[in-house]
Design a protein that fits this description.
Layout: H1 11-32, H2 38-45, H3 49-77, H4 80-96, H5 103-117, H6 119-131, H7 134-165, H8 168-189, H9 203-212, H10 217-245, H11 253-258, H12 264-280, H13 282-299, H14 305-333, H15 338-359, H16 361-395
Helix pairs in contact: 1-4, 1-6, 1-7, 1-8, 2-3, 3-5, 3-6, 3-15, 4-5, 4-6, 4-8, 6-15, 7-8, 7-12, 7-14, 10-14, 10-15, 10-16, 12-13, 12-14, 13-14, 13-16
Main location: membrane
Domain Major facilitator superfamily (MFS) profile: 16-395
Transmembrane segments: 12-34, 54-74, 81-100, 106-128, 140-158, 170-190, 219-240, 260-278, 307-330, 342-365, 371-390
C-alpha cells in the first residue's frame, strides 16, 4: 500500500506537530534566555551594553553558521537526526557556563550553543513540507512557529524571574533540566522520515544549488523581509529591559520579565494567521501582520507603562503573523533543495536578530528609546513600499 502524506486528520500529524513543538519550545527558550539578563551581565561582569548584547548576537552568529552547514547535511543525511542532536548540543552549555566566572568563556559557549541550536530550524521546516500534505502544512508550520513564540516567552520570563529571586546560574541549570525532559520526549515521539530524498550531488553542485536560490527574485524578497522583521522585533525587545529599569519606570528585573508574556499573542497569532491565509490569502494576511507590527511598536512610545504593555502585545501579534506566513511561503517558491531554501530564509531571519541585538547599540546610546522605536517601527512599512515600487517599475 502506497504511503501518503499526513493530513490534519491523522494521528501522526499531531505526533509530529507536538514533537517539533516541544523541541522548538526549548530551542527558542535557550536562544533568547539571556535577553532579560543583559543588564545583569553589565553589572556582574563589568561590561558595556553592547558587549553584554554579544551573549545573544554571538549565539545567533553560531546559529547562522550552523544553519548553513547543517542545512547542507540535512539535505544529504535526513532530518530527524539533526533535530535530536540539536537538543543534546543545546543542553550542555547550560551546565558548563555557570561553572566559570568568565564572560569571555560565556560568549564562547553561547557561540557553540548557537551552532548546536541550528539543527532544529535547519531540518524542521523541510521535514514538515516532506511529510505533511500541502493543505495541512500551513497549520503545522504555524503551530511550530507558535511554539517558537511560547519558548521565547517562557525562556525570557523564567530566566528573569529566577535570576531576580536566586541567580542567573540557577536559571541556566533549570533550563538544562527542562532540556533533558524535552530531549527524552522528542526521542520517543518524533516519527522517522518517510519521503526524504537524499541529495546525490557533489558538494560543489550542492553549493551551486544552494546559491541558485539567491537568483530567485521571489525568494530574495522573502529573505529581505525576514531580515527586516526580525531586526525590528529584536531591537525592541533587546533594549526594553534597559529602558524600563531606568526612571521614570525603575522596574525590577522580575517585573520587566513579565512583559515577555506579550509573546502569548504570538502563540495565538501564528495558527490564526495560518487559518486566515487559507481563507483570504497569504499575502493579505501577511500585509496586515506587518502593519499591526509597526503600529504596536509606535504604541511603546507612550509614557504610560500599561499602554507600553498593550503595544508590546500588539507588536507580538503582528510579528508572529507576518513571520509565520513569510516562513510558510518559502516552500511555495522552490521544488528542490527545500532544506537549503529554508536554511537561507532562517539565515536572513537570524541576521536580523544579530543586527537588532548589537548593531542598534549606538542608536540606543545616542538617541534613546524614542529614536530607536521611530527607526525600527518605520522599517517594515518602508521595506514593503520599496518592494512594491521596484516590482511596479520592473513590470512596467
Amino acid at each position: 500500500m502506497q504511503q501518503r502524506l499526513y493530513t490534519i486528520k491523522d494521528f501522526y500529524f499531531w505526533r509530529i506537530t507536538l514533537s517539533l513543538g516541544l523541541a522548538s519550545f526549548f530551542i527558542f527558550a535557550s536562544m533568547y534566555s539571556v535577553q532579560p539578563l543583559l543588564p545583569v551581565f553589565v553589572k556582574e561582569f563589568g561590561v558595556t551594553v553592547s558587549e553584554s548584547s554579544l551573549s545573544l548576537s554571538l549565539t545567533i552568529i553560531g546559529l547562522i553558521a550552523g544553519l548553513i552547514v547543517l542545512g547542507f547535511l540535512s539535505d544529504r543525511n535526513g532530518r530527524t537526526f539533526f533535530i535530536k542532536i540539536s537538543l543534546v548540543g543545546s543542553v550542555i552549555p547550560f551546565l558548563l557556563i555557570p561553572l566559570f566566572d568568565s564572560f569571555l568563556l560565556l560568549l564562547v559557549l553561547r557561540l557553540l550553543q548557537g551552532f548546536a541550536l541550528a539543527g532544529l530550524p535547519a531540518a524542521s521546516l523541510a521535514y514538515l513540507s516532506e511529510e505533511i500534505d500541502r493543505r495541512s502544512v500551513h497549520v503545522a508550520t504555524a503551530l511550530y512557529i507558535s511554539s517558537n513564540a511560547l519558548g521565547g516567552m517562557i525562556g525570557r520570563v523564567m530566566t528573569g524571574y529566577i535570576t531576580d529571586n536566586f541567580s542567573w546560574e540557577t536559571a541556566f541549570y533549570v533550563l538544562a533540566g527542562v532540556g533533558v525532559v524535552v530531549l527524552v520526549a522528542v526521542f520517543l515521539m518524533l516519527p522517522k522520515s518517510r519521503f526524504f530524498q537524499p541529495s546525490n550531488l557533489t558538494f560543489v553542485r550542492d553549493i551551486q544549488a544552494f546559491l541558485y536560490h539567491l537568483k530567485n527574485p521571489g525568494l530574495l524578497v522573502i529573505f529581505g523581509l525576514g531580515i527586516v522583521l526580525q531586526f525590528t522585533f529584536t531591537g525592541i525587545w533587546t533594549y526594553l529591559p534597559f529602558y524600563l529599569q531606568d526612571p521614570p519606570f525603575s522596574l525590577s528585573l522580575k517585573v520587566i520579565s513579565y512583559t515577555f508574556f506579550a509573546y502569548g499573542l504570538g502563540v495565538v497569532g501564528s495558527p490564526l494567521a495560518g487559518w486566515l491565509a487559507g481563507t483570504i490569502g497569504l499575502r493579505r494576511v501577511r500585509m496586515a501582520g506587518i502593519i499591526i507590527l509597526s503600529a504596536g511598536m509606535f504604541m511603546t512610545l507612550s509614557p504610560y507603562f500599561w499602554l507600553i504593555v498593550v503595544g508590546l502585545c500588539v507588536t507580538c501579534l503582528g510579528f508572529f503573523t507576518a513571520h509565520s506566513l513569510t516562513a510558510a511561503s518559502v516552500g511555495e517558491q522552490v521544488t528542490d533543495h527545500k532544506g537549503s531554501a529554508a536554511s537561507l530564509y532562517l539565515v536572513s531571519y537570524y541576521i536580523g536578530v544579530a543586527l537588532g541585538s548589537s548593531v542598534l547599540g549606538p542608536v540606543w546610546t545616542g538617541l534613546g528609546w524614542k529614536g530607536l522605536v521611530l527607526l525600527v517601527a518605520s522599517l517594515p512599512v518602508v521595506y514593503l513600499v520599496f518592494v512594491r515600487i521596484f516590482q511596479y517599475k520592473k513590470s512596467g
